[in-house]
Amino acid sequence: MVSETYPPEINGVAMTVSQLVRQLSVRGHHIELVRPAQPVEPAERHGAHETVLVAGFPIPGYRELRFGAPALRKLRRRWQRLRPDVIYVATEGPLGWAAVKAAGMLGIAVVSGFHTRFQHYGRYYRLGWLQPLVYRYLSRLHNATACTLVPTEALRRSMRETIPSIEVLARGIDCNRFKPQRRSEALRREWGAGPNDRVFLYVGRLAREKNIALAIDTFLRLRESNPDIRFVLVGHGPDYCRLYSRYEGLIFAGSRVGEELARYYASADIFLFPSTSETYGNVVLEAMASGLGVVAFDDAAAGIHIRHGYNGMLAGVQDEAAFLRHSQTLLANGKYLDTLRQRARTAMEGIAWEQIGSEFERILRHYTSRRVKNASAGDLAADFSR
Question: How many angstroms separate the CA atoms of 126 and 215, rounded?
């Protein structure tokens, strides 16, 4: 398993990879996790596995995250000596590129994951001119693997002309951790919310590509006629300081994990998810499992699991007016919100990581006996250097 992010780093990719590692481990497989060294290595390992560390460097603009050095020689030597049956490359950075190349040299099957739409990020940072180059690099890397895993059928359809060998591996949810019973009135009092006051919640990176400005603008417009509502933002990111200094009356909670994060979810009422750049959006499942009324765009996980008006509210992609309108509807109709919240929880029951782990194991077993497609070193290296 090769990933350039892993817990205790906080993001959807790290969480997903750790769950996949855990699912393979409990099935008796020996896991070797290759990742960058973190500034402070965790005292406890997440899951039973062997860890191989490579040099790591902070990502510009995301200093809390790191990318791994292209440790081609190290990986090739190690896998010559301790040959894995199959390699899963979760990220497409320098370390992921090196892993694909090393495996190709040794004839080891590689399955890759497509977790992040990096090719779309340029539009949020005035780097749109980079989009074709990034897309070309990603395409070459994934086509150098036996198969690429994506989390939704819609994403598979949109990518299959560029990456023909592609399969869907969905995501799960831990309903024992994320559940309405973790609601804390004491926590709500810390937020200044009474028993009947509505609390809005956002969980995720505070970054431009998350469209966080829409969630904040929606809340501020609702607060004009509902002064007792609260908005709690959980997460960190490059826009944290700017947003914290600009907006008074919003509760910036920083990063929360584990049982504490579950309490934050369950103690809120309405979850605003304004992003349209997700490959999936694990936080939507966490919010639904916690019994929140979710307002999101009809995309990724929300588009799969939410039935508009039944267990959540969906706006057409980029329809910001509908996003505001649906938020107003939930705020104004308490009984309707309560019904949606109950149905949201019910919809998540049975979507367990154990099912995803079984499918992941099946896919890896299928490709173990197949030789990896080998892109030329020059093609991949040229794209990476560009």
Answer: 22
Asked whether the beta carbons of 59 and 39 are under 8 A apart, the reply is no
Residues 6 or more apart whose CB falls under 8 angstroms from that of 73 comprise: none
For 249, counting Cβ atoms within 10 Å of its Cβ (0-12 exposed, 13-18 middle, 19+ buried), the class is exposed
* CA angle in degrees (0–180, nearest 5) for 31-257-259: 100
Q: Which residue has the tokens 């995309």?
A: 299
Residue 226 in tokens: 């509902």
- Is residue 62 scored above 70 in pLDDT? no
Place of tokens 């990034």: 134
Q: What is the pLDDT at residue 79?
A: 97
Q: Is residue 67 very low, low, confident or very high in pLDDT (cuts 50, 70, 90)? A: confident
Q: What is the pLDDT of residues 329-360, one digit of tens each?
A: 999 999 999 999 999 999 999 899 999 999 99
pLDDT score at 264: 98
How far apart are alpha carbons 148 and 120 in whole angstroms?
19
For residue 217, which amino acid is it? D
Based on its alpha-carbon atoms, the radius of gyration of the chain, rounded to whole angstroms, reads: 21
Rounded CA-CA distance 103/76 in Å is: 7
> Per the structure block, which two tokens stand in for 35?
């990742």
pLDDT above 90: residue 171:
yes
Pairing, β 199-203 against β 270-273: parallel
Q: Please name each of the domains of the chain with its CATH number.
A: 12-172+354-385 (3.40.50.2000), 180-348 (3.40.50.2000)
Q: What percent of the chain has pLDDT over 70?
A: 88
